[in-house]
Design a protein that fits this description.
The chain is mostly helical and 436 residues long. The chain has one domain. Helices cover 76% and strands 0% of the residues. It is built from 21 helices and no strands. α4 packs antiparallel against α14. The longest helix is centred in the middle third of the chain and has 28 residues.
Length: 436
């Protein structure tokens, strides 16, 4: 570990000031829709990288390039980028109709009184299988608005249940970019992180289901929502879930999902043969920005570490958080602060990973527990901030359908993120570390 140097953290400060400042300006001053997501995050990270390169004139530029190359060329970074690409192909292949089939199937067999609970369960399943909370919200919100209109439940309750369910899958999915980033950054197997994480997420999901059910029992409801569905289209999702839980290599799992998805989507006529490759390309394209962020952040973090920035952060954390449990809480709050600043839980994890790795070593926190804490706390904060992609997409889609809803109406109904925070505190302070 290099000598502590707080000045080395300047690139992170520059990024946060530019990204958060411009985001607030665009979103709340200029009233630009999806203002935070109109800011090219890759460009802001390039500026931060430039600042890091200008720092420490004692190290010449060629030496800095070598430091960055070692950071970018790390096995975990390369693995992360490749998994991002493969996950993008899978999502591109299975498409929208598979998620809708799951929703309409459950809505057809479960009484309308429990329609909101169905929305939560479907969102959890779809995001667990697809690995994307934003994609899940985009697919399920139109169904949620239809449920609210037809059943009489409030739109904020329906949307809050969808967002909560989407964050459940985002946190646990084997092909979620947050899971990939946390596991590769901390050096643990995805199945180990899943098992550790499941003990936090399941109690939160059960409590959320109970709250939604209690609220539903006293509501006056209308007719159930009826639409056509094709259950065979959910097979690729089920195969990916089974393969991931069984501990099969993630690349093999994704290949099984891609091949089975392609065959089923072509056989059922859901996708035309001429569109299949285009859909794969679109899925991969959706991962380009995330992949570039991972590469740029690894380069910036390598320089910051070389200059002593991470040593400074660890020094500060050790003064505030004492003991193993304090270290776990500090790790969670660290990634939470990164998420509040970036409004992107994957970016928050990638930025926090190097510091969290050092913290895990210093506080004797196992890799699976560290990965679980990073992913869980990032999803808690991402699930409730009013300017996060999940909330903005839910509002945008719902309002296009005439819902007339705001983030602050949805926030009181985000039961799952709140229960997940409570469950996480129990996990940190009361659950003993399992033996390896």
């Amino acid at each position: 570990m290099n000598k502590a140097n707080y000045k080395a953290l300047l690139p992170i400060g520059v990024f946060l000031v530019l990204y958060l400042g411009l985001g607030i300006l665009f979103e709340y001053v200029l009233k630009i829709p999806m203002g935070f997501y109109n800011i090219p995050i890759v460009v802001v990270f390039l500026i931060a990288l430039l600042v890091a390169c200008v720092q420490n004139p004692k190290l010449n530029f060629d030496a800095k390039l070598e430091v960055m190359a070692k950071g970018v060329g790390d096995k975990n970074i390369i693995t992360m980028v490749l998994i991002f690409m493969a996950a993008g192909v899978f999502v591109g292949v299975v498409g929208r109709s598979s998620a809708e089939s799951v929703a309409y199937f459950l809505l057809s067999i479960i009484p309308a009184r429990f329609a909101v609970l169905v929305l939560f369960v479907v969102s959890a399943f779809v995001s667990l299988a697809m690995g994307t909370s934003v994609g899940t919200i985009t697919l399920i919100v139109p169904i949620a608005v239809a449920v609210a209109t037809g059943s009489g439940f409030g739109v904020p309750l329906c949307l809050g249940s969808v967002v909560g369910g989407a964050m459940f899958g985002d946190n646990l999915s084997f092909i979620s970019d947050t899971t990939i980033a946390a596991c590769n950054g901390q050096g643990c197997a995805m199945k180990d992180k899943f098992r550790e994480n499941f003990g936090i997420a399941l109690p939160a999901a059960i409590l959320t289901a109970v709250i939604i059910t209690v609220m539903s029992l006293g509501a006056a409801v209308g007719e159930p929502i009826v639409q056509d569905y094709n259950l065979i289209q959910i097979i690729p999702y089920v195969l990916v879930l089974i393969g991931g839980i069984a501990g099969i290599n993630v690349f093999v799992v994704l290949m099984i999902g891609i091949v089975s998805g392609a065959i089923i989507m072509l056989a059922t006529g859901a996708t035309a043969p001429t569109d299949l490759l285009a859909n794969m390309g679109s899925g991969v394209s959706g991962m380009f920005e995330t992949s570039m962020v991972a590469i740029l952040v690894s380069a910036i973090c390598a320089l910051i570490n070389e200059y002593g920035g991470f040593a400074a952060v660890l020094q500060l954390i050790k003064k505030v958080f004492k003991g193993k449990k304090g270290g776990m809480l500090g790790m969670g709050l660290l990634v939470g602060a990164m998420d509040i600043a970036t409004a992107n839980n994957t970016v928050a994890i990638v930025m926090a990973n190097p510091i969290a790795k050092e913290m895990a070593n210093d506080y004797d926190i196992s890799p699976r527990k560290a990965a679980s804490i990073l992913d869980t706390f990032s999803c808690i904060f991402q699930g409730v901030i009013p300017y996060g992609a999940q909330m903005l997409v839910a509002i945008s889609v719902a309002n296009e359908l005439g819902a007339g809803i705001s983030a602050f109406q949805i926030m009181p109904n985000l039961f799952y993120p709140y229960m997940l925070f409570l469950s996480s505190l129990v996990f940190v302070f009361l659950v003993q570390e399992k033996t390896k």
